[in-house]
Write a structure and sequence with these properties.
CATH class of chain C: Alpha Beta
Bound molecules: iron/sulfur cluster
Strand order of the largest sheet of chain C: 4-5-7
Largest sheet of chain B: 3 strands, antiparallel
Number of strands of chain C: 7
Oligomer: heterotrimer
CATH topology of chain B: Cytochrome-c3 Hydrogenase, chain B
Chains: A mainly alpha, B alpha+beta, C alpha+beta
Strand order of the largest sheet of chain B: 1-2-3
Shape of chain B: globular
CATH architecture of chain C: 2-Layer Sandwich
Strand content of chain C: 15-25%
Number of helices of chain C: 5
CATH superfamily of chain B: Cytochrome-c3 Hydrogenase, chain B
């Protein structure tokens, strides 16, 4: 396994103390991520604007590039209001409970072949486990704010995050079965010829859906749904606290996009191999991550939000059975040593079945189209107008 | 595993105060929802935050001054509101409106129906959780039509263009051509919204079988407009009690089968297509020359004593003006029958038993204008 | 699934269209000739005085009673420079109340008042409502400086 190398600070790697170097790496990663998030907010606003035929931010700096800085300044200088009746401990703890896991996830992510903070044998498990912790923070925030919208949002968030954690983990499990390792590094190395999305399209689709749900982005932004619970758990937070929540949301988006890029798109390995140097590898990682992010934005502009019961039944009745089926099929293929193409066939078939299900469930009963009533009044006016 | 029943832990229904400042109450509307978990068990609508005494104000104004107030009552279908008001006065005075003015009125009212329904489609998209895309698509086309209104009447929102006996002034020279351009963009806008929303499975899943009303219920609640037609009652004042030049125009009225939120959406989208048709025909039949104001109108409008009820099919339903005059230049009593208000009465019945998120959709599908509700 | 893909296709297609918005304070939309912003008084270049004779017709017709007109004898009439016997002395319009209904313009017999159809008539944000009460000088300034659009209907 590679040695732990401190991100972007090679000179410090003389430090022998692994704890210290990990701490330094974490700090560096936090700073870089904060900058990345600032860029992401700008990019999101721009991209969404273009998909809506708008210009997006244009005022601050060229093409509004300095907009995130202005936003940050505004948010930091804003007064942080805490409701008098809020549960103080829960209110403040929630911040940490959401914020810390998001950054801890980044520890185990190998940005290039030898750029990561800490190598682990079970990094995939670690990422999923730590990433799944944030629901505690949502519950705390929902309860601590002493606001009914926040409470509703918190409950929704907890239910949604836990529900979608399961199909997400199961889809990952399918991949782990194929690769034979729960180390993201190994998974990347496994994809030197063909990325896993080809062998496991069904797992990929499940992962993608569950990711959007985990990130609480449209169409799964039920906990924060603007038009229903008016911001959900964040409703009482303002100023720097709110911006930390926002920051966390974007860091999570980066983390999951990276995970998707590594596990399904081949990370920095495919298609050029391990030996092209860290610069290209980083670029490759970024490009693949960007694909995910663009997809999230695209989905965000295109879809209405699901309802809470639809969300639940989609997780438990659709994604979960399909994820289990995927694992079962993978098991069959691996136990009987069938060729890899069977993986593709089964998984692809499953993916198609999933799409068909989504298509058909909504149209259980085909609805009659509108009737068009022509030029003659069809009713005697008196009977209706009274 | 069955959870043990704990008598000391009771679950209570939680009242939630939605509005008057809430992103999806379409203005300052407040509803107190009582929810049990996510299900709504009771709704109490509170209105009146926008009450400005509009009816009373209009009683202190002469018939020209009132037009501006009619605009402000129904600020998304201003031409319909103006039309209802001037129709009432004209009927009381027995004024004959020149044909050209009638056609221009119909054209503008139908274009206004387009802008109003665009507004609905956009806002409804937001209610359903779309991140502003439908709103942007709708506003794109709406702004274009509003540009046309601005060129003609001088204002983007409060047109004050119809007058008792006709129109305030002549339309612009390129009116017909600009109308055709607007129709073209409107058609594109309808297509875009259609592509974006109508067939989307998520949208369907959110809208279908929500807030359904049968025809009997709809009639019993006195619903009108698209809300009524979605429930399967083919009643449209433009057909059933025609006014202006509508009898000369060929168009269909779309009628829904299920009476749910999705049908209301479809009906409105289809109505937009029909409006495009109406405007096209009206533009063809529009007399190129002619007076736009009735002749021999006194400088100061006075009505004979009497009462009259004039109603028009506004985008939201039956917009009526009930006018009592005791002679003189001001109404003695003016009552506006606003479709938003009457449709809103069905909110409770439609919402109870639905999910919290559906309450928002039902309210959105009513397409209320709060100024019109409260007056 | 088909509808979902259609929605995605829609937004993707739109992303390649030209944006329809403009960056407002830098770029101003062309406003129509007939645009009605707020009423302004017009300046008679020929006689170097306002057209307005202070006849109170607009004041009486205004539905929101936001105008105040004070009339005086025209000193120029005594010297024979002007045909107007009476002239406006003080004129206030409360832009905060005006509902831009155009009635004052319609009733004026002297074509002395018109609806501003330039951007100056729209960008009137103030920190205090009382600053929106325009006096005679302010109402006349735009017309005096010749900055009124020729399409203005009076
Ligand atoms: S535009 Fe109307 S409200 Fe404004 S000053 Fe003139 S008459 Fe009064
Ligand atoms: S603006 Fe016209 S109507 Fe008003 S006082 Fe002056 S002259 Fe009379």
């Amino acid at each position: 396994m590679m040695r732990a190398v401190i991100l972007a600070a090679p000179s410090v790697d003389a430090l022998d103390n692994p704890a210290l170097s990990a701490l330094l790496g974490l700090i560096v990663i936090t700073l870089i991520m904060t900058l990345g998030v600032m860029f992401a907010t700008w990019y999101e606003r721009k991209a969404v604007a273009r998909m809506q035929q708008r210009l997006g931010p244009m005022r601050v700096g060229p093409w509004g590039l300095l907009q995130p800085i202005a936003d940050t300044l505004k948010l930091v200088s804003k007064e942080g209001v805490r409701p008098a009746s809020a549960d103080r401990i829960a209110w403040d703890l929630s911040l940490a409970a959401i914020f810390v896991p998001a950054f801890l996830v980044l520890v185990a992510i190998p940005f290039t072949a030898d750029w990561f903070v800490s190598p682990m044998d079970l990094s995939l498990l670690y990422i999923l486990a730590v990433g799944g912790l944030s629901f505690i923070g949502f519950l705390l925030a929902g309860w601590g704010s002493d606001n009914k919208y926040a409470l509703l949002g918190g409950m929704r968030a907890a239910a949604q995050l836990i529900s979608y954690e399961i199909p997400m983990i199961l889809s990952m499990l399918a991949v782990v079965m194929v690769v034979g390792s729960a180390d993201v590094y190994r998974i990347i190395l496994y994809q030197d010829v063909v990325p896993l999305i080809v062998w496991q399209p069904l797992a990929f689709i499940i992962f993608l859906t569950a990711t959007i749900a985990e990130l609480e982005r449209q169409p799964f932004d039920i906990p924060t749904g603007e038009s229903e619970v008016a911001g959900g758990v964040f409703i009482e937070y303002s100023g720097i606290r709110w911006s930390l929540f926002q920051l966390t949301g974007y860091v999570n988006m980066y983390a999951y996009s990276l995970l998707g890029a590594f596990v399904f798109l081949g990370g920095w390995e495919w298609p050029f191999g391990t030996d092209i140097g860290w610069g290209y590898q980083l670029l490759l990682t970024m490009v693949k991550m960007a694909l995910f992010i663009v997809f999230f934005l695209w989905v965000r502009t295109s879809f209405p939000r699901l309802r809470v019961d639809q969300l639940m039944s989609y997780a438990w009745k659709v994604l979960l059975p399909f994820a289990l089926a995927q694992i079962f099929l993978n098991g069959l293929v691996l136990v009987y040593d069938l060729p890899d193409v069977v993986l593709l066939a089964t998984s692809g078939g499953g993916a198609l079945a999933l799409c068909w299900l989504v298509y058909s469930v909504v149209r259980v009963k085909p609805r009659q189209p509108l009737r068009m009533v022509g030029n003659v009044p069809a009713t005697a006016p008196g009977s209706v107008s009274g | 595993m069955v959870a043990e029943q704990r008598p000391d832990l009771e679950t209570i229904d939680m009242p939630i105060n939605m509005g008057p400042q809430h992103p999806s109450t379409h203005g300052v509307f407040r509803m107190v929802l009582v929810v049990s978990g996510e299900k709504v068990v009771d709704v109490t609508p509170h209105i009146g935050y926008m009450h400005r005494g509009g009816e009373k104000l209009m009683e202190t104004m002469d018939f020209r001054q009132g037009i501006g107030y009619a605009d402000r009552t129904e600020y998304l279908a201003q031409f319909s509101a103006e039309l209802g008001y001037v129709l009432a006065v004209e009927r009381l005075m027995g004024v004959e409106v020149p044909e050209r003015a009638e056609y221009i009125r119909v054209i503008l009212t139908e274009l206004n129906r387009l802008t109003s329904h665009f507004m609905f489609a956009g806002a409804f998209g937001i209610d359903s959780g779309l991140f502003g895309t439908s709103m942007m698509f709708a506003f794109r086309e709406r702004e274009f039509i509003q540009d046309l209104f601005e060129e003609i009447s001088g204002d983007r929102l409060m047109y004050a263009y119809f007058r008792v006996g006709g129109l305030a002034w002549e339309v612009t020279d390129n009116f017909v051509q600009r109308c055709h351009e607007s129709l073209k963009t409107a058609e594109r806008g309808i297509r875009d919204i259609d592509d974006l929303l109508t067939h989307n499975e998520i949208f369907m899943g959110r809208c279908q079988n929500i807030g359904a009303f049968t025809a009997q219920q709809a009639i019993a609640y006195g619903l009108s407009g698209p809300m009524l037609r979605a429930s399967g009652v083919p009643f449209d004042l433009r057909k059933d009690e025609p006014y202006s030049v509508y009898p000369r125009l060929k168009f269909d009225i779309p009628v829904g089968n299920y009476g749910d939120v999705y049908d209301r959406f479809l009906v409105r989208i289809e109505e937009m297509r029909q409006s495009v048709k109406i405007v096209e025909q009206a533009l063809e039949q529009l007399p190129p020359e002619g007076p736009i104001v009735a002749e021999k109108l006194p400088r100061r409008l006075r009505t004979p004593p009497g009462e009259v009820y004039a109603k028009v099919e506004s985008p939201r339903g039956e917009w009526g003006v009930y006018l009592i005059s005791k002679g003189g230049d001001k109404p003695y009593r003016l009552k506006m029958r606003s479709p938003s208000f009457c449709n809103l009465t069905a909110l409770r019945e439609m919402t109870i038993g639905q999910f919290l998120a559906d309450a928002v959709m039902v309210l959105g599908s009513m397409d209320i204008v709060l100024c019109d509700v409260d007056r | 699934m088909i509808g979902i893909l259609r929605s995605l296709g829609m937004t993707a297609r739109v992303a390649f269209r030209k944006p329809v918005t403009n960056s407002y304070p830098n770029v101003h939309r062309q406003i129509a000739n007939r645009d009605r912003a707020f009423p302004i008084l017009l300046w008679d270049e020929e006689h170097d005085e306002p057209f307005c004779t202070g006849c109170h017709a607009c004041e009486r017709a205004c539905p929101v009673e936001c105008m105040t007109v004070v009339m005086k004898d025209n000193p120029k009439h005594a010297t024979g420079e002007s045909k107007r016997r009476k002239i406006i002395d003080e004129f206030w319009i409360d832009y905060g109340r005006c509902m831009r209904c155009n009635i004052c313009v319609e009733v004026c017999n002297f074509e002395a008042i018109g609806m501003n159809n330039t951007w100056a008539g729209h960008e009137l944000s103030r920190f205090d409502r009382s600053e929106l009460v325009m006096d005679l000088d302010m109402l006349l300034s735009q017309s005096k400086a010749g900055k009124v659009d020729p399409g203005l209907r009076a």
